Each structure stands twice: as C-alpha cells, then as structure tokens.
Amino acid sequence: MKHLYNCSLGKDSVAELILAKKQNVPIDRIVFADLQDADFPQMKEHLFKVQDYIGTEIEVIKAPFTFNEKFFQPVTKGNYVRPYRGFPPTVGCSCWVKRDMKITPIERWTKQNDLSGYVRHFGFAKGEEERLARLPDGVSLLIENGITENQAREICEDAGLLNPLYRYFDRLGCWLCPKQSLKSWRSLWLNFSDLWQKLKYYERFCIWKLTPRYTTNEMEERFIREAEVWQKTEKEKQDKDFATTYVYGKTDAP
Ligand code: SF4
C-alpha cells in the first residue's frame, strides 16, 4: 500500500507529514495545489523548507491560468454578465478560485495518475472526523493519534516548520479571499502593503463590493481610526503609569 499526502502547507497537513516521518509511515507522494498569484508569495519558500525536511518531492498542481488572467476574463452568460469576472462573490455561489484553480486541477491530476493502491492522507485534526468520513479512501494520522489543531501547531513549531504566515493570520488562505475576517484584513493592510495596493487595484474592476460590508477604502478608514484610539489609550496608560510610579517615589523626577 502506497501513501499520498495532500498538503496545503497549513499547520495540520504539515503536522500530518511530520507525524508520518516520525512514525515511519511511508511518504510516497505529496501534492500541493498551487493557487499561484492568489497565494501569498511566501508560500513557495515554505514549500521548499517542508520538502527538504520530509525528503520527498512535493508535486505542484496548478490551473493553466493565473488569478489575474481569470479575474479579467469577461462573463458573457448567466445573470451577472459583466466585462470582468472580478473577485469571487461572498454569497450566492461557490468560490471560483477554489473551484477552477484548486478542485478542478486536482481532479484532473487524479484522473491522469493511477492512484489505485494509494491511501490518501488529509491533515484533519481531532474533531474533524466527519470531514474525513466523507472521503472514502482518506486517512488522517492526526485523528488516529487524537491530535488537536493546537497540538498540530506545536508539532510544526517543534520541527521548525510552522508556516511563518501564522505570525500574521489565524487561518491561511488566499491573500485576497473576500471571506476573510476583519482581523485578517487588518493584518494584510498593516503587514503586506504591496498586496493591499494590489487589492485596491483589482477592486476598481469588480462590479460588487469586495466584502459585504466594506470596500478597501472603508476598511482603511476604520483601521486608521482604530490605530488612533489605540495610540491615545496607550499614551494615557503610560502617562498614568509614570505618574503613579513618580508619586510613590519609585523613580526620580525628570
Ligand atoms: S481562501 Fe477564499 S478565495 Fe481562496 S479559494 Fe478559499 S474561499 Fe476562495
């Protein structure tokens, strides 16, 4: 029996690989769905790091077009005919990035490769048994070993293989995902200004709002307001701390 691992480079799928290596479970093939320009550029670097540690080549599967190309394709049929496809909508239908740049290329690759005789590993942690049960040939060492998402993160940290993007985001996905949380948008604005500018550029060609509540300008206004309140509160706190210390004679007067 051969073993194939689906790896997204998130903490759970990487922990599945680390565990397999530790438990001497064969790692015959690893596949990664490359979302190209919809992925954070840092993903590639992490892919090579994981590959070096595991010692098995990671096969990269990708769509024959980029996000940018598909974004600017006209939509000529259906209820929403428009000059450019634009961002995936947040309601009403499935995400075209996921469907066309991930699921379809993986299905095509699966058909082109004879995978009979392979066990397929998915990085599902304890609590995700139902998701795994929907995949007839799927297994998960994390579930078999009762490993939670937090423990999966620790496994990656211990091996030095926690994706560095977790420094900025709780969950990993496309940098432009319209479904991400406000916290995640804030982090993108604050830490990835080049991608934020790209987002603003794309927004000009999309007929609907990026998120149900905000445009990028509206988010920026909100983030700036929040930063000002935070700075003011911090300054007041520091002034208060200093005054308290000074009154009680724990420091010299300036
Ligand atoms: S992260 Fe968001 S944009 Fe990317 S594939 Fe998933 S749902 Fe679509």
Walk me through what this model shows.
This protein has one domain: 3-Layer(aba) Sandwich (Rossmann fold), CATH 3.40.50.620. Helix content is 47%, strand content 9%. It contains 10 helices and 5 strands. Helix 5 links the parallel strand 4 (118-121) and strand 5. The longest helix has 32 residues, at 216-247. It is flat.
Could you name the key traits of this structure?
single chain; 254 residues; alpha/beta; 10 helices; 5 strands; binds iron/sulfur cluster
Specify the CATH class.
Alpha Beta
Number of helices: 10
Q: What is the terminal-to-terminal distance? A: 74 Å
Q: Provide the CATH topology.
A: Rossmann fold
**How many beta-strand segments?**
5
Can you tell me the CATH superfamily?
HUPs
Give the second-level CATH assignment, the architecture: 3-Layer(aba) Sandwich
Q: Helix/strand/pairing class, anyone?
A: alpha/beta
Radius of gyration: 23 Å
The strand line-up of the biggest sheet is 3-2-1-4-5
Count of the domains: 1
Net shape: flat
The largest sheet is: 5 strands, parallel
Overall pLDDT confidence = 93
